[in-house]
Amino acid sequence: MNGLYDELRIALHTVWTRRWLALAVAWGVALIGWAAVAQIPNSYESRARVFVQMNTILPNAVGISAADQQRDVDTIRQTLTSAMSLEKVVRGTDLANTVKTDRDVADRVAGLSKAIKITAEQDNLFSIVATGSSPKVTRQIVQKLIDLFVEQNLSGDRDETSTSLKFLDAQLEERQKQLADADAKRTDFQNRYLGSLPGTGSLTDRMGAARSAMAQVDSDLAAAQSGLAAINGQMAGTPANIAGAAGGVSAGPARARLNAIQGQLADARARGYTENHPDVIAMRSQLASAQAAARNEPLVGGAGGGSTNPAYISLRSLQGDKQAQVASLMARKAQLQGDLDTITAKLAGNPQVAAEQSQIENDYQVLKDSYAKLLGQREAIKLRGQAQSQTDSIKFSVIDPPTAPRVPAAPNRPLLLTGVLIAGLAVGVAVAFALGQLKTTFATAARLEKATGMPVIGSIGEMVSKAELATRRRMLLYYGGGAAALGVAYVALLGVEMLQRGLAA
Questions:
Q1: Is 439 helix (H, G, I), strand (E, B) or coil?
Q2: pLDDT, tens digit, for every residue of 130-146?
Q3: 435, 484, 429: which is closest to 22 by C-alpha?
Q4: pLDDT of the residue at 62
Q5: pTM higher than 0.70 for the full model?
Q6: Which of 42, 172, 301, 372 sits at 20 to 30 Å (Cα–Cα) from 425?
Q7: Is the CA virtual torsion 307, 311, 314, 315 positive or negative?
């Protein structure tokens, strides 16, 4: 422990004997370091946070999804740091006072691209940070970016909608002209080739429609002929007259009921009802009971004479209807057959007419579908633009307004000034100590004895006169003043820094 204490005393003595050198080095390092710190410009930082609220209730109904809105916001966020947007920032803040030429604007834009940072803290929360040499200008930059953020969203939607509508209007006008030309060509073709042909549409469509109608007529005619044959068969088995009372007296109630049931049964069969039909089964059951009752009913008056059978009359009426229906269907079939023959003859005489008409019809239909699709897209985009501009599909809220920095974000000048002072003192002490090690001296007899390996008999203390002592005291006072001046310079620099911060704020 005594050895360590002695070494420390020796090191302090070495430095103290060269204290003027240490002070000079400390002053030199401090002045150079403080000058370097003074050259570092202050950098102020202004921050703001913007929250983007997306209204997806109505926009979803008009084709605006949340993903589309988020993509639009991300695009705007990226374009805020584009050269065009940064040029607006330069010209919209006090930076405009520092530019005179386009070259100056380009330099300011290049500096802003490095000084601005826009980050997404959460899903819809954005942080805007700008750094600069002036707190006022830095705050103006952040505020201008917020204004551009909102402006580009609104104007971007309007510009995009307006551009899309102009494009679609031009396309619709062109399609309308093409459609009118195709319609005129189609009309001219029909007047030249199809005016005398039956039906509408192309030759293939007309032939298909005629064949389909012919198949339907054949089916109806077969059914009508079958019904007529059934009625003719029933009439063959139905007497025209029935036995009645002498002198034309009508039959009794039972026979009248029997005649009515027979007429209803004949009418049902004429309508095409089968024997398994529930109505036919019920009427046959009623007919059996009515026949039994009619057989047991005595005739009023003497025999002889008779009356007309109602069932026969009903069958005659149905027969006439069926005959008229069959005649009408046969006439319709003949007409359709004539149409088919006419169309077939047209195709046989000019086989390319069908191909030409098919091409004309296809072109017309394609243009018509394209026009309708473009018209629908135009209405959808128009409705979407109205929804975005009138319902505020995206709202911007400034959570934290741009801050007005009072203290520079960088550099930490007080810390740097203190570090330079400490570094100057440390370098001065180190230089003095290193020089003492190069120029060997022996502060104690023990060290001399250790270095030479020979015993030291004794040592003689220094004798200082009063004049020398006064000189040494005066020099010590000068030394203390030099060291104090270094501290005063440090304090003065701190004061200047605080004053500059106050003026900047």
A1: coil
A2: 888 888 888 888 888 88
A3: 429
A4: 42
A5: no
A6: 42
A7: negative
